[in-house]
Amino acid sequence: MSTTYSEPASLDLLFPQELISPEVSAQLPSDLQIRPLASTDYKRGHLDVLSVLSVVNDLGEVAWVNQFHAMRAAPHTYYSIVILDKASDKIVAVGTAFIERKFLRGLGSVGHIEDVAVDKSQQGKKLGMRIIQALTYISENNGCYKSILNCNDANIPFYQKCGYVQKENEMAKYA
Ligand code: ACO
C-alpha cells in the first residue's frame, strides 16, 4: 500500500523556504522535496545520511535539537538543506552553506559548501548535483562573491560537473 504524503502543518525550519531555488525544486522528481533543515529532522534520518560522509557520533535528539537552535540563533550564517523522500518521510540527501562575512572585498562574503552527502541507495540520480545547485544559489543570493569547498580527489569530477573549478590547496591541522 502506498503512503499518501501530506505536507506537515508547520515545519520549524532553519531558514525560510523562499531561499531554496525554485528551479532546483522543479527539477526534482515529484516524490522528492528539497527544503531547509527542520527541527524535527533528527527523526527523519539526518545523521544516517551524514554518516555516508564521515564519523557522526550521535549524541541523541536533545543534543541535535540544541545544535539546530544554536545555528538558527546566528541568522544569515547557517543554511543546511535536505532532500526528503515524501513516501517514507526519510531524508535522502543533505548539504550546508556557511556564509562567512569578511573585511576584504568591500566587506564581502564567501559561501562555504560543507557536509554534502547522498544516501547510498540514492546516489547517481543527480541529487548531489541538486544539493550543490541549491547551496550555490543560497550563497549567491546572500551576495557572496565566490562559493568554495574542500573535497577528495575522487569527488573532483563530480564538482566539475556542478560547475566548480580546482583552485589552490587545502591545509589541515587536527586537534
Ligand atoms: N566521479 C566522477 N563523476 C561523478 C562522481 C565521481 N566520484 N560522482 C558523481 N559524478 C557525476 C555523475 O556521473 C553525474 O554526471 P552526469 O551529469 O554526466 O550524469 C554528475 O557527477 C552528478 O552526479 P550526481 O548523481 O548528482 O551524484 P550523487 O547524487 O551520487 O552525489 C556525492 C555525489 C555527493 C559525491 C555522493 O556520491 C556522496 O554522497 N558521496 C559520499 C559522501 C561524499 O563524498 N560527499 C562529498 C564530500 S565533499 C563536501 O562535502 C564539500
UniProtKB/TrEMBL annotation:
Record PROSITE patterns: GNAT
Pathway(s) of this molecule: Nucleotide-sugar biosynthesis; UDP-N-acetyl-alpha-D-glucosamine biosynthesis; N-acetyl-alpha-D-glucosamine 1-phosphate from alpha-D-glucosamine 6-phosphate (route I): step 1/2
Location of the protein in the cell: Endomembrane system; Endoplasmic reticulum membrane
Signal peptide: none
Any GO MF annotation of the entry: glucosamine 6-phosphate N-acetyltransferase activity
Domain of life (superkingdom): Eukaryota
Keywords: Acyltransferase, Endoplasmic reticulum, Membrane, Transferase
Any one GO CC term of the record: endoplasmic reticulum membrane
Assigned EC number: 2.3.1.4
Membrane-topology descriptor: Peripheral membrane protein
Location of the N-acetyltransferase domain: 32-175
Family: Belongs to the acetyltransferase family. GNA1 subfamily.
Name of this chain's protein: Glucosamine 6-phosphate N-acetyltransferase
